[in-house]
Design goal:
By secondary structure, the chain is of the alpha+beta class. The chain is 44% helix and 22% strand. It contains five helices and three strands. Strands 2-1-3 form a three-stranded antiparallel beta sheet, sandwiched between helices. A hairpin with a 6-residue loop joins strand 1 (4-10) and strand 2 (17-22).
Length: 95
């Protein structure tokens, strides 16, 4: 079982991207979808989980999140396309 996750949210295919990290993926995605916290994802309506990557520990997930955030948009899009070519919402697969 994974102790940490790196994930990418969007509002639509090829839309705005948000890269995050959490230790409880179902809860965190629910928070994004319900807009319970003010911030970037709420402002841009980012409710679609399009990428999720499990990690054994928080430290590796934090480093991976930081690395992905530094990537260009095209690299992030390529990462999504590798596992989710249609940009389907993966929420139902993680709850």
């Amino acid at each position: 079982m994974s102790n940490a996750w790196v994930y990418i949210m969007t509002n639509r295919r090829d839309g705005t991207l948000y890269v995050g990290m959490t230790s409880n993926l179902p809860r965190r995605i629910w928070e994004h979808r319900e807009g319970v916290a003010d911030g970037f994802s709420k402002k841009h309506g980012l409710k679609r989980l399009v990428y999720a990557e499990p990690h054994e520990n928080i430290q590796t997930a934090i480093q991976r999140e930081k690395n992905i955030k530094r990537w260009s948009r095209s690299w992030k899009v390529r990462l999504i396309h590798e596992k989710n070519q249609n940009w389907d919402d993966l929420y139902d697969q993680v709850v």
